[in-house]
Write a structure and sequence with these properties.
By secondary structure, this protein is α/β, with parallel strands linked by helices. 41% of the residues lie in helices and 17% in strands. It has 14 helices and 17 strands. Helix 3 (63-83) packs across helix 10 (283-299) and helix 11 runs parallel beside helix 14 (391-408). The structure holds pyridoxal-5'-phosphate.
Length: 409
Protein backbone atom coordinates (compact mmCIF):
# COMPACT_ATOMS: atom_id res chain seq x y z
CA UNK A 1 0.00 0.00 0.00
CA UNK A 2 1.36 3.45 -0.87
CA UNK A 3 1.81 6.14 1.77
CA UNK A 4 -1.14 8.06 0.34
CA UNK A 5 -3.42 4.99 0.48
CA UNK A 6 -2.56 4.49 4.15
CA UNK A 7 -3.31 8.14 4.88
CA UNK A 8 -6.59 7.93 2.97
CA UNK A 9 -7.66 4.85 4.91
CA UNK A 10 -7.05 6.76 8.11
CA UNK A 11 -8.86 9.87 6.90
CA UNK A 12 -11.87 7.88 5.72
CA UNK A 13 -12.27 6.46 9.22
CA UNK A 14 -12.99 10.02 10.35
CA UNK A 15 -16.12 10.11 8.15
CA UNK A 16 -18.56 7.42 9.37
CA UNK A 17 -20.98 7.86 6.47
CA UNK A 18 -18.31 6.79 3.97
CA UNK A 19 -18.58 3.26 5.36
CA UNK A 20 -22.26 2.85 4.56
CA UNK A 21 -23.81 0.81 1.81
CA UNK A 22 -26.30 2.15 -0.70
CA UNK A 23 -28.48 -0.54 -2.30
CA UNK A 24 -25.94 -3.06 -0.99
CA UNK A 25 -22.99 -1.30 -2.65
CA UNK A 26 -20.32 0.81 -0.97
CA UNK A 27 -21.24 4.49 -1.07
CA UNK A 28 -19.18 6.46 -3.58
CA UNK A 29 -19.80 10.04 -2.53
CA UNK A 30 -18.94 12.42 -5.38
CA UNK A 31 -21.33 15.26 -4.58
CA UNK A 32 -18.90 17.29 -2.50
CA UNK A 33 -19.51 20.57 -4.34
CA UNK A 34 -23.12 20.41 -3.12
CA UNK A 35 -22.13 19.56 0.42
CA UNK A 36 -19.24 17.73 2.06
CA UNK A 37 -19.49 14.91 4.58
CA UNK A 38 -18.74 15.68 8.22
CA UNK A 39 -15.91 14.20 10.26
CA UNK A 40 -16.62 12.64 13.66
CA UNK A 41 -14.96 15.54 15.49
CA UNK A 42 -17.52 17.99 14.01
CA UNK A 43 -20.45 15.71 14.87
CA UNK A 44 -19.07 15.25 18.40
CA UNK A 45 -18.55 18.98 18.89
CA UNK A 46 -22.21 19.60 18.03
CA UNK A 47 -23.53 16.82 20.27
CA UNK A 48 -21.15 17.88 23.07
CA UNK A 49 -22.72 21.34 22.96
CA UNK A 50 -26.23 19.89 23.32
CA UNK A 51 -25.26 17.22 25.83
CA UNK A 52 -23.14 19.36 28.11
CA UNK A 53 -23.46 23.11 27.78
CA UNK A 54 -26.48 24.04 25.64
CA UNK A 55 -27.18 27.65 26.46
CA UNK A 56 -27.70 31.01 24.78
CA UNK A 57 -24.57 33.10 24.31
CA UNK A 58 -23.38 36.59 25.23
CA UNK A 59 -26.22 37.46 27.59
CA UNK A 60 -25.77 34.96 30.40
CA UNK A 61 -23.76 35.21 33.59
CA UNK A 62 -24.16 31.52 34.35
CA UNK A 63 -21.51 28.91 33.67
CA UNK A 64 -23.20 27.19 30.71
CA UNK A 65 -23.71 30.47 28.90
CA UNK A 66 -20.11 31.42 29.47
CA UNK A 67 -18.88 28.09 28.12
CA UNK A 68 -21.10 28.38 25.03
CA UNK A 69 -19.94 31.97 24.47
CA UNK A 70 -16.31 30.93 24.82
CA UNK A 71 -16.66 28.12 22.27
CA UNK A 72 -18.59 30.34 19.83
CA UNK A 73 -15.95 33.06 20.03
CA UNK A 74 -13.13 30.50 19.88
CA UNK A 75 -14.50 29.41 16.48
CA UNK A 76 -14.48 32.98 15.27
CA UNK A 77 -10.81 33.23 16.24
CA UNK A 78 -9.98 29.95 14.43
CA UNK A 79 -11.63 31.31 11.30
CA UNK A 80 -9.80 34.61 11.62
CA UNK A 81 -6.49 32.70 11.76
CA UNK A 82 -7.53 30.33 8.98
CA UNK A 83 -8.14 33.09 6.43
CA UNK A 84 -5.62 35.49 8.01
CA UNK A 85 -8.03 38.35 8.67
CA UNK A 86 -6.69 41.32 10.62
CA UNK A 87 -9.04 40.93 13.56
CA UNK A 88 -11.82 38.59 14.73
CA UNK A 89 -14.19 41.58 14.36
CA UNK A 90 -13.94 41.13 10.60
CA UNK A 91 -15.50 37.65 10.85
CA UNK A 92 -19.30 37.77 10.74
CA UNK A 93 -21.27 34.57 11.18
CA UNK A 94 -24.03 34.20 8.59
CA UNK A 95 -26.28 31.38 7.41
CA UNK A 96 -23.97 30.78 4.45
CA UNK A 97 -22.57 32.19 1.23
CA UNK A 98 -25.98 33.32 -0.01
CA UNK A 99 -26.73 35.34 3.10
CA UNK A 100 -23.23 36.87 3.04
CA UNK A 101 -23.69 38.14 -0.50
CA UNK A 102 -27.18 39.49 0.26
CA UNK A 103 -25.83 41.26 3.34
CA UNK A 104 -23.12 43.03 1.33
CA UNK A 105 -25.52 43.81 -1.52
CA UNK A 106 -28.03 45.46 0.77
CA UNK A 107 -25.86 47.03 3.47
CA UNK A 108 -22.80 48.07 1.49
CA UNK A 109 -23.57 48.31 -2.21
CA UNK A 110 -27.19 49.46 -2.45
CA UNK A 111 -26.74 52.71 -0.44
CA UNK A 112 -23.81 53.63 -2.70
CA UNK A 113 -25.62 53.06 -6.02
CA UNK A 114 -27.42 55.48 -8.27
CA UNK A 115 -29.08 55.17 -11.64
CA UNK A 116 -26.59 54.37 -14.39
CA UNK A 117 -23.97 52.84 -12.07
CA UNK A 118 -22.82 49.32 -12.81
CA UNK A 119 -22.06 46.13 -10.91
CA UNK A 120 -19.77 43.61 -12.55
CA UNK A 121 -20.11 39.83 -12.22
CA UNK A 122 -19.00 36.99 -14.51
CA UNK A 123 -20.89 34.52 -16.68
CA UNK A 124 -19.92 31.68 -14.34
CA UNK A 125 -21.64 32.91 -11.17
CA UNK A 126 -23.90 30.80 -8.99
CA UNK A 127 -27.46 32.17 -8.82
CA UNK A 128 -26.57 33.39 -5.31
CA UNK A 129 -24.13 35.82 -6.88
CA UNK A 130 -26.54 36.96 -9.59
CA UNK A 131 -29.96 37.45 -8.03
CA UNK A 132 -29.00 39.71 -5.07
CA UNK A 133 -27.39 42.09 -7.58
CA UNK A 134 -30.44 42.00 -9.84
CA UNK A 135 -32.54 42.98 -6.83
CA UNK A 136 -30.37 45.99 -5.90
CA UNK A 137 -30.16 47.01 -9.56
CA UNK A 138 -33.95 46.92 -9.85
CA UNK A 139 -34.25 49.07 -6.75
CA UNK A 140 -31.67 51.67 -7.79
CA UNK A 141 -31.69 51.79 -11.58
CA UNK A 142 -28.12 50.46 -11.70
CA UNK A 143 -27.06 47.96 -14.36
CA UNK A 144 -25.72 44.43 -13.91
CA UNK A 145 -22.91 43.71 -16.40
CA UNK A 146 -21.59 40.23 -17.08
CA UNK A 147 -18.00 39.44 -18.08
CA UNK A 148 -18.01 36.72 -20.75
CA UNK A 149 -16.20 33.37 -20.62
CA UNK A 150 -14.50 31.41 -23.42
CA UNK A 151 -15.32 27.89 -24.65
CA UNK A 152 -13.00 26.34 -22.08
CA UNK A 153 -15.01 28.04 -19.33
CA UNK A 154 -12.38 30.68 -18.49
CA UNK A 155 -13.02 34.34 -17.80
CA UNK A 156 -11.96 36.52 -20.75
CA UNK A 157 -9.65 38.85 -18.87
CA UNK A 158 -9.31 41.45 -21.63
CA UNK A 159 -13.08 41.82 -21.65
CA UNK A 160 -13.05 42.25 -17.88
CA UNK A 161 -10.46 45.01 -18.21
CA UNK A 162 -12.52 46.74 -20.89
CA UNK A 163 -15.70 46.51 -18.83
CA UNK A 164 -14.08 48.06 -15.73
CA UNK A 165 -15.19 51.58 -16.59
CA UNK A 166 -15.81 54.52 -14.27
CA UNK A 167 -19.45 53.45 -14.06
CA UNK A 168 -18.56 50.25 -12.18
CA UNK A 169 -19.11 50.61 -8.45
CA UNK A 170 -18.62 47.02 -7.33
CA UNK A 171 -17.20 43.72 -8.58
CA UNK A 172 -18.53 40.41 -7.24
CA UNK A 173 -16.85 37.31 -8.54
CA UNK A 174 -16.62 33.60 -7.89
CA UNK A 175 -13.17 32.21 -7.09
CA UNK A 176 -13.95 28.64 -8.22
CA UNK A 177 -16.93 27.83 -10.43
CA UNK A 178 -19.18 25.16 -8.92
CA UNK A 179 -20.34 23.77 -12.26
CA UNK A 180 -17.15 24.07 -14.36
CA UNK A 181 -14.43 23.86 -11.73
CA UNK A 182 -12.63 26.88 -13.24
CA UNK A 183 -10.25 28.64 -10.85
CA UNK A 184 -10.40 32.34 -11.61
CA UNK A 185 -7.26 34.54 -11.50
CA UNK A 186 -8.67 36.17 -8.42
CA UNK A 187 -5.61 38.16 -7.37
CA UNK A 188 -5.38 39.82 -10.80
CA UNK A 189 -9.13 40.45 -10.83
CA UNK A 190 -8.90 42.20 -7.44
CA UNK A 191 -5.76 44.13 -8.34
CA UNK A 192 -7.32 45.43 -11.56
CA UNK A 193 -10.51 46.56 -9.80
CA UNK A 194 -8.53 48.20 -6.99
CA UNK A 195 -6.42 50.11 -9.52
CA UNK A 196 -9.71 51.87 -10.33
CA UNK A 197 -10.78 52.16 -6.68
CA UNK A 198 -13.54 49.54 -7.04
CA UNK A 199 -14.21 47.18 -4.08
CA UNK A 200 -14.44 43.43 -4.71
CA UNK A 201 -16.40 40.58 -3.11
CA UNK A 202 -15.05 37.04 -3.55
CA UNK A 203 -17.51 34.13 -3.53
CA UNK A 204 -15.32 31.48 -1.91
CA UNK A 205 -18.05 28.81 -1.56
CA UNK A 206 -16.08 26.40 -3.78
CA UNK A 207 -12.54 27.53 -2.98
CA UNK A 208 -12.34 27.66 0.81
CA UNK A 209 -12.16 23.82 0.95
CA UNK A 210 -9.63 23.41 -1.90
CA UNK A 211 -7.25 26.39 -1.80
CA UNK A 212 -5.43 28.05 1.09
CA UNK A 213 -7.03 31.48 1.31
CA UNK A 214 -5.28 34.49 2.80
CA UNK A 215 -7.61 37.48 2.65
CA UNK A 216 -4.82 39.95 3.36
CA UNK A 217 -2.70 38.57 0.55
CA UNK A 218 -5.67 38.54 -1.83
CA UNK A 219 -6.57 42.04 -0.73
CA UNK A 220 -10.30 41.35 -1.24
CA UNK A 221 -12.74 43.70 0.46
CA UNK A 222 -15.31 40.99 1.22
CA UNK A 223 -15.18 37.20 1.08
CA UNK A 224 -18.00 34.77 1.77
CA UNK A 225 -18.25 31.02 2.27
CA UNK A 226 -20.52 28.29 3.67
CA UNK A 227 -19.65 25.95 6.53
CA UNK A 228 -21.24 22.88 4.97
CA UNK A 229 -18.88 22.93 1.98
CA UNK A 230 -15.82 22.78 4.24
CA UNK A 231 -16.82 19.73 6.29
CA UNK A 232 -18.84 21.81 8.76
CA UNK A 233 -22.58 21.99 9.50
CA UNK A 234 -25.30 23.50 7.34
CA UNK A 235 -26.93 26.81 8.27
CA UNK A 236 -23.66 28.51 9.16
CA UNK A 237 -21.27 30.55 7.04
CA UNK A 238 -18.87 33.42 7.16
CA UNK A 239 -18.69 36.92 5.79
CA UNK A 240 -15.24 38.43 5.98
CA UNK A 241 -15.17 42.17 5.43
CA UNK A 242 -12.49 44.81 5.82
CA UNK A 243 -13.11 46.60 9.09
CA UNK A 244 -13.13 50.06 7.50
CA UNK A 245 -16.10 48.99 5.35
CA UNK A 246 -17.96 46.99 7.99
CA UNK A 247 -17.80 49.92 10.39
CA UNK A 248 -19.42 52.26 7.88
CA UNK A 249 -22.17 49.82 6.88
CA UNK A 250 -25.68 49.86 8.33
CA UNK A 251 -26.92 46.69 10.03
CA UNK A 252 -28.58 44.14 7.74
CA UNK A 253 -31.15 43.02 10.29
CA UNK A 254 -32.37 44.51 13.57
CA UNK A 255 -32.92 42.65 16.83
CA UNK A 256 -31.10 41.21 19.80
CA UNK A 257 -27.30 41.04 19.99
CA UNK A 258 -26.77 43.73 17.33
CA UNK A 259 -27.66 46.51 19.79
CA UNK A 260 -25.92 48.28 22.65
CA UNK A 261 -29.05 49.99 23.88
CA UNK A 262 -32.60 50.49 22.67
CA UNK A 263 -35.16 53.15 23.43
CA UNK A 264 -38.21 54.11 21.38
CA UNK A 265 -36.39 57.25 20.34
CA UNK A 266 -33.01 55.81 19.44
CA UNK A 267 -31.06 52.59 19.20
CA UNK A 268 -27.29 52.40 19.52
CA UNK A 269 -25.83 49.55 17.50
CA UNK A 270 -23.34 47.09 18.89
CA UNK A 271 -19.68 46.99 17.87
CA UNK A 272 -18.36 44.69 15.19
CA UNK A 273 -18.90 41.84 14.55
CA UNK A 274 -22.14 41.75 16.59
CA UNK A 275 -23.69 44.61 14.63
CA UNK A 276 -24.33 42.05 11.88
CA UNK A 277 -25.41 39.13 14.06
CA UNK A 278 -29.00 39.95 15.01
CA UNK A 279 -30.95 37.42 17.06
CA UNK A 280 -29.82 34.15 18.59
CA UNK A 281 -27.26 32.80 16.15
CA UNK A 282 -26.59 29.25 15.04
CA UNK A 283 -24.44 28.51 18.08
CA UNK A 284 -23.81 24.81 17.48
CA UNK A 285 -23.20 25.58 13.79
CA UNK A 286 -20.47 28.09 14.60
CA UNK A 287 -18.89 25.67 17.09
CA UNK A 288 -19.06 22.84 14.53
CA UNK A 289 -17.55 25.06 11.84
CA UNK A 290 -14.66 25.98 14.12
CA UNK A 291 -14.03 22.26 14.66
CA UNK A 292 -14.21 21.59 10.91
CA UNK A 293 -11.66 24.30 10.24
CA UNK A 294 -9.37 22.94 12.93
CA UNK A 295 -9.71 19.50 11.31
CA UNK A 296 -8.96 20.78 7.79
CA UNK A 297 -5.93 22.66 9.13
CA UNK A 298 -4.64 19.42 10.64
CA UNK A 299 -5.09 17.56 7.33
CA UNK A 300 -3.24 20.47 5.74
CA UNK A 301 -3.51 22.11 2.33
CA UNK A 302 -0.31 20.48 1.09
CA UNK A 303 -2.05 17.11 1.20
CA UNK A 304 -5.44 18.45 0.11
CA UNK A 305 -4.08 20.20 -2.97
CA UNK A 306 -1.78 17.39 -4.01
CA UNK A 307 -4.35 14.63 -3.62
CA UNK A 308 -7.24 16.54 -5.16
CA UNK A 309 -5.07 17.58 -8.13
CA UNK A 310 -4.27 13.91 -8.72
CA UNK A 311 -7.92 12.93 -8.41
CA UNK A 312 -8.94 15.59 -10.91
CA UNK A 313 -6.31 14.53 -13.44
CA UNK A 314 -7.17 10.86 -12.99
CA UNK A 315 -10.90 11.53 -13.40
CA UNK A 316 -10.49 13.77 -16.44
CA UNK A 317 -8.18 11.26 -18.16
CA UNK A 318 -10.43 8.33 -17.32
CA UNK A 319 -13.68 10.01 -18.37
CA UNK A 320 -12.18 11.51 -21.54
CA UNK A 321 -11.52 7.97 -22.77
CA UNK A 322 -15.26 7.22 -22.77
CA UNK A 323 -16.85 7.49 -26.22
CA UNK A 324 -19.83 9.82 -26.25
CA UNK A 325 -18.82 11.64 -23.06
CA UNK A 326 -18.03 15.34 -23.24
CA UNK A 327 -16.53 17.29 -20.35
CA UNK A 328 -18.04 20.74 -19.89
CA UNK A 329 -15.39 23.08 -18.48
CA UNK A 330 -11.81 22.60 -19.60
CA UNK A 331 -10.06 25.54 -18.00
CA UNK A 332 -6.29 25.35 -17.62
CA UNK A 333 -6.70 25.90 -13.86
CA UNK A 334 -9.43 23.78 -12.33
CA UNK A 335 -10.52 22.57 -8.91
CA UNK A 336 -11.68 18.97 -8.42
CA UNK A 337 -14.98 19.22 -10.29
CA UNK A 338 -15.83 17.32 -13.48
CA UNK A 339 -19.07 18.20 -15.24
CA UNK A 340 -20.02 16.12 -18.25
CA UNK A 341 -22.78 15.20 -20.68
CA UNK A 342 -23.38 11.92 -22.50
CA UNK A 343 -24.67 11.68 -26.07
CA UNK A 344 -28.39 10.89 -26.09
CA UNK A 345 -28.75 10.38 -22.32
CA UNK A 346 -30.29 13.04 -20.11
CA UNK A 347 -28.16 13.85 -17.03
CA UNK A 348 -31.06 12.97 -14.71
CA UNK A 349 -31.10 9.45 -16.17
CA UNK A 350 -27.33 9.27 -15.71
CA UNK A 351 -27.63 10.34 -12.07
CA UNK A 352 -30.45 7.90 -11.39
CA UNK A 353 -28.53 4.98 -12.86
CA UNK A 354 -25.29 5.87 -11.04
CA UNK A 355 -27.27 6.00 -7.82
CA UNK A 356 -28.21 2.35 -8.26
CA UNK A 357 -24.47 1.59 -8.12
CA UNK A 358 -24.16 3.55 -4.88
CA UNK A 359 -22.63 6.61 -6.60
CA UNK A 360 -23.82 10.04 -5.49
CA UNK A 361 -23.34 12.74 -8.13
CA UNK A 362 -25.32 15.89 -8.84
CA UNK A 363 -27.33 16.41 -12.01
CA UNK A 364 -29.07 19.55 -13.19
CA UNK A 365 -28.07 23.15 -13.76
CA UNK A 366 -26.22 23.42 -10.42
CA UNK A 367 -27.80 26.84 -9.80
CA UNK A 368 -25.89 28.20 -12.79
CA UNK A 369 -28.53 28.33 -15.52
CA UNK A 370 -26.62 30.96 -17.55
CA UNK A 371 -23.67 28.54 -17.86
CA UNK A 372 -25.94 25.79 -19.16
CA UNK A 373 -27.19 28.20 -21.83
CA UNK A 374 -23.62 29.30 -22.64
CA UNK A 375 -22.64 25.68 -23.35
CA UNK A 376 -26.00 24.86 -24.93
CA UNK A 377 -26.79 21.95 -22.62
CA UNK A 378 -29.95 21.54 -20.52
CA UNK A 379 -27.99 20.20 -17.57
CA UNK A 380 -24.82 18.28 -16.71
CA UNK A 381 -23.79 15.43 -14.47
CA UNK A 382 -21.23 16.68 -11.98
CA UNK A 383 -18.74 14.59 -10.03
CA UNK A 384 -16.93 16.65 -7.40
CA UNK A 385 -14.13 15.30 -5.25
CA UNK A 386 -12.97 15.85 -1.71
CA UNK A 387 -9.68 14.85 -0.10
CA UNK A 388 -11.29 11.64 1.21
CA UNK A 389 -12.08 10.34 -2.28
CA UNK A 390 -9.98 7.69 -3.97
CA UNK A 391 -8.93 6.73 -7.49
CA UNK A 392 -10.76 3.43 -7.00
CA UNK A 393 -13.99 5.40 -6.58
CA UNK A 394 -13.31 7.12 -9.90
CA UNK A 395 -12.87 3.66 -11.48
CA UNK A 396 -16.29 2.69 -10.11
CA UNK A 397 -17.75 5.88 -11.59
CA UNK A 398 -16.20 5.22 -15.01
CA UNK A 399 -17.47 1.61 -15.07
CA UNK A 400 -20.94 2.70 -14.08
CA UNK A 401 -21.00 5.36 -16.81
CA UNK A 402 -20.07 2.65 -19.35
CA UNK A 403 -23.08 0.65 -18.12
CA UNK A 404 -25.35 3.67 -18.62
CA UNK A 405 -24.08 4.12 -22.18
CA UNK A 406 -24.62 0.45 -22.98
CA UNK A 407 -28.13 0.54 -21.54
CA UNK A 408 -29.14 3.57 -23.64
CA UNK A 409 -27.44 2.51 -26.88
C1 LIG B 1 -20.06 29.11 -6.10
C2 LIG B 1 -21.20 29.08 -5.15
N1 LIG B 1 -21.68 30.23 -4.66
C3 LIG B 1 -22.71 30.25 -3.80
C4 LIG B 1 -23.30 29.08 -3.37
C5 LIG B 1 -24.43 29.16 -2.38
O1 LIG B 1 -24.06 28.54 -1.18
P1 LIG B 1 -25.13 28.32 -0.01
O2 LIG B 1 -26.30 27.65 -0.64
O3 LIG B 1 -24.42 27.46 0.97
O4 LIG B 1 -25.46 29.67 0.52
C6 LIG B 1 -22.84 27.87 -3.86
C7 LIG B 1 -23.50 26.60 -3.48
O5 LIG B 1 -23.41 25.61 -4.15
C8 LIG B 1 -21.77 27.86 -4.76
O6 LIG B 1 -21.29 26.72 -5.26
Amino acid sequence: MSEIDVKLLEIRQDFPVLNRLVYGKPLVYLDNAATTQKPKCVISAISDYYLNYNSNIHRGVHRLSQEATDEYEKSRKFIKEFINANTASEIIFTRGTTEGINLVAHSFVRPRLKEGDEILITHMEHHSNIVPWQIVCEETGAQLRVVPINDAGELIFEEYEKMLTDKVKFVSVVYVSNSLGTINPIEEIIKKAHSKGIPVLVDAAQSIQHIKIDVRKLGCDFLVFSGHKIYGPTGIGVLYGKQIYLEKMSPYQGGGDMIKSVSFERTIYNDLPYKFEAGTPNIEGAIGLGKAIEYVSQIGFDFIIEHETQLLKYAQDKLSEIDGLKIIGNAARKASVVSFVLDNVHPHDVGTMLDVDGIAVRTGHHCTEPIMRRFEVPATTRASFAFYNTKQEIDVLAQSIQKVIKMFS
